[in-house]
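Sequence, structure tokens reproduced for absentees:
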Amino acid sequence: MLLKKDIEKSFNIRNKKKLFIFELANNHNGSIDNGFILIRSAKKISKSSNINFAIKLQFRDLKSFLYKKNRIKNKHIERFKSAKLSENEYSKLCKYIKKNNFTLVITPFDEPSVSKAIKNKVDILKIASCSNTDWPLIEKIAQTKKPVICSTGGLDIDGIDNICNFFNHKKIPLAILHCISVYPTDDLKLFNLNFIKRLQLRYPNVIVGYSGHEREDNFLPVLTASSLGARIFERHFSIFDSRNKYSADSKNLKELISQLNSNIELLGHENKKIISKKEVDSLNQLRRGVFAKKNFSSKTKSLKKDVYFAFPKINKKQLEPGDISKPIKLTKNYKKDDALVTNKIDSNYEIIRKYVHRYKYMLNEANVVISKDCRVELSHHNGIKNLEKVGALLVTLINGQYCKKVIALFPGQKHPKHKHFKKVETFHMLWGDLQIIKSNKIFNLTVGDKLDVFKDEWHSFSTKNGAVFEEISTESIKSDSKYFDPVIDKTDSLVRKTLVPIW
């Protein structure tokens, strides 16, 4: 299975970047000079820190593509003929695209055009909506092993399943574009952009994007798709008077890209809550503080009865109302109306509660539901206060003829090196990423991967962004683990683990 980071690299969208494709299609109108003008115009409006850019050409081998005896009137035939360029002219356009540091994307509509695209050193091959059921063409594209973008216009969920399964099976990086093949798309009901969310959930190892055919001044679909998590965008581009109603000009695309860039900045981080100093200072000016209701000594045992809450806080270190329910150690005597600035104690109870809540909602993120009658434990080999660095959540689902656990790790958390004398384990990834070091070999696991650990095999595991996985083994046997660290090994398991009675 391809790793998500490798798939992202194939489409030039590492580090949360997005890719915007200028679709030239036939808008050069059969003139190589027009093609050069379009590329230069795209270059002028493609400056952004959050977006990478590509230019897409369409290849048709008209000798084989068009039926020789056709006498049926079809508006597209004359358009294809009028926009024809020679192989040499297409080659010059491809070189010029790369010279201007664009990713080169080509849509081949027939098998000979696939070979021509490869000859021109294409970076990404595109399957148009009209070709997403053309399996001889799709198979020819797959033979190149190039990354593939496929538009899904007119394709039902079974058809999308077929495309994703085909390219995933061949281990070819794939992106799919939610697409409405109506030119132009005016009816808002047709967009159905919420379907992007289903595509993301259904195909976790596929990049999801949006290909639009809305009118040139309609920015809303792209911005909405971006907000829903789309990573690749495609818009038809032309600056000539002959452009169609769904091709945007440079003025409109410049504005669209500017707004898209702002949208990306506005969306921020998926996994990181940003709390600025400015926000903290602002809230501190609005919070109530804790004050002494009467004189009392540091030895008082009824603090809740001896204090009151009032606005504003008069000291940055002053206790707030929420602190009163936590264990507190008084370090001095207080007089009436004094602001309390005493020390809070990090009790094990508070620490355990914090970690339990964090694990619980992490499992929600992973969409893993735990039965109510399971045994839940916090494993903390270096003490409960260091659990965030070393430890794990252990949920025992069954422990009989075999044992099955769900194990969760915080981002950056690790489980120390150890081995088992009797039991054999199988790790099966459900969510996130996991690195297992087994017998001095490194194994990087992602969703769907599994790994066997046999008895007497030294192993440890850790995660960068968080992990949830199943551990299936022979019956969980007491005292079956030996730790490489002698301090951990000598510590009783009852000390290294904390049972969570209420989950």
About this structure: The mean pLDDT is 91.
